[in-house]
Specification:
Order of helices and strands: EHEEEHEEEEEHEHEHEHHEEHHHH
Strand order of the largest sheet: 5-11-10-6-12
Oligomer: single chain
Mean pLDDT: 84
Shape: elongated
CATH superfamily of the largest domain: Nucleoside phosphorylase domain
InterPro entries: Nucleoside_phosphorylase_d (IPR000845), Nucleoside_phosphorylase_sf (IPR035994)
Strand content: 15-25%
Number of domains: 2
CATH topology of the largest domain: Rossmann fold
Helix content: 25-40%
CATH class of the largest domain: Alpha Beta
Low-confidence stretches: 251-267, 291-298
Protein name: Purine phosphorylase
Number of strands: 14
């Protein structure tokens, strides 16, 4: 595939459906071993996403995560679903982004007791920074079904084991809370997913969980109050916004070292000032041009000006709120300045800003369409 998708995996059908509603144009992709994925794009013509269901438990999660990675060679991987909170101050419906994952069942049994020997995997620094940015800018809240109740986004460790914990007083529950007292939540799949990502040259991986219960014996009550549905909707809302940001921020050179991108058809080197440009390559396919800087397409400025006018009209009509308008204006300024450089680097920055802009305006069809037109023109600049 020319475009490397982002893979999203879930354990439960409820979680799968919560993510799937954000995709359009989905088609079934069958793995030769029988696993079915669905491949589509973010609503609004966004990045390609491959969605899969792994079932419960770390072992099947590891196997099917490995299968998804081998099949799609993704640029990033997200695991999305629900979890139980380990502490009462964490609210039902809150979103937990794992800074690292504990596989807490590892250990040794000795005469004086059980000694923990966990394995742990950390989220990459870059992805953690992107996740914090998504939380700070607040744009993800537009996906929350009930915007009167905005969940708290928390960053911290998640413990992943092989049992459903639903007690605060059992020996197992006491041991988990004592041994992993910095963990915010507990679940059953993240360790398998994290290990599979780790074994694929540290593929960037994020676990996003919505808190559906407190793992304290009240799960039947909270499930009966529909907190599982609320929690998974909140987790999916944050995860989709994270995918939008990742699609704009992470390039093939910085994501997934196992990437095998084909060499571009044309290679262009640009010399500035008194520099000389040489071409060094083992093999060169297609055309190589050395010469003048890239000239912007003649109508890109006009399209951008038209987009800015439409954006202002949408704000006046109440279709775009003030925060979204300000954020969109910032991206338009970046696009304008980047295109004025007339370089490949400027073109790249402009495309990244355009993708962010598309994410901000995706709920307004007319504006999203205008952004798509600008993207098409900028991509055609040569």
């Amino acid at each position: 595939m020319g475009e490397r998708p982002i893979v999203i995996l879930t354990a439960l059908e409820l979680e799968y459906q919560a993510v799937r509603k954000y995709l359009t144009g989905t088609r079934v992709h069958r793995h030769r071993a029988g696993t079915r994925f669905e491949v589509g794009r973010l609503v609004g013509g966004g990045h390609q996403v491959a969605l899969g269901l792994v079932g419960k438990g770390n072992h099947p999660a590891a196997v099917l995560t490995e299968r998804a990675i081998a099949e799609f060679e993704p640029s990033a991987l997200l695991f999305v679903g629900v979890a139980g909170a380990l502490w009462p101050d964490i609210g039902l419906g809150d979103v937990v982004v794992a800074t690292h994952v504990y596989a807490y069942h590892g250990g040794t049994s000795e005469d004086d007791g059980f000694k923990a020997r966990p394995r742990a995997w950390e989220i990459s620094h870059e992805l953690e920074q992107v996740a914090h940015h998504v939380e700070r800018n607040g744009a993800w809240k537009r996906h929350i079904p009930d915007e009167t109740v905005i969940p708290v986004v928390r960053f911290g460790p998640i413990a992943a084991g092989e049992v459903v914990q639903d007690s605060a007083v059992s020996e197992h529950a006491k041991w988990v809370r004592q041994t992993y007292n910095d963990a915010l939540a507990i679940e059953m799949e993240a360790a398998g997913v994290a290990q599979a990502a780790h074994h694929n040259r540290a593929l960037p991986m994020v676990v996003v969980r919505g808190v559906s219960d407190w793992a304290d014996g009240t799960k039947v009550v909270t499930d009966g109050a529909n907190w599982q549905t609320t929690a998974v909707a909140n987790a999916a809302a944050f995860a989709i916004s994270l995918v939008e940001e990742l699609a704009a921020e992470l390039s093939p050179s910085t994501v997934g070292k196992a990437a095998r991108e084909p060499m571009a058809e044309n290679v262009r080197n640009v010399a500035r000032d008194h520099a000389r440009v040489g071409v060094q390559a083992g093999n060169i396919y297609g055309n190589v041009s050395v010469g003048q800087p890239i000239e912007p397409a003649p109508d890109s400025a006009a399209l951008l000006a038209e987009l800015r006018t439409k954006l202002a009209q949408a704000r006046t009509a109440g279709k775009v709120d003030e925060d979204t308008f300000a954020a969109a204006e910032t991206e338009i300024i970046i696009i304008d300045e980047s295109l004025s450089e007339s370089t490949e680097q400027g073109k790249g920055r402009a495309l990244i800003a355009l993708k962010k802009l598309r994410g901000l305006l995706m709920d307004v069809a007319e504006l999203a369409s205008k952004v798509a037109s600008v993207i098409a023109v900028v991509r055609g600049i040569s």
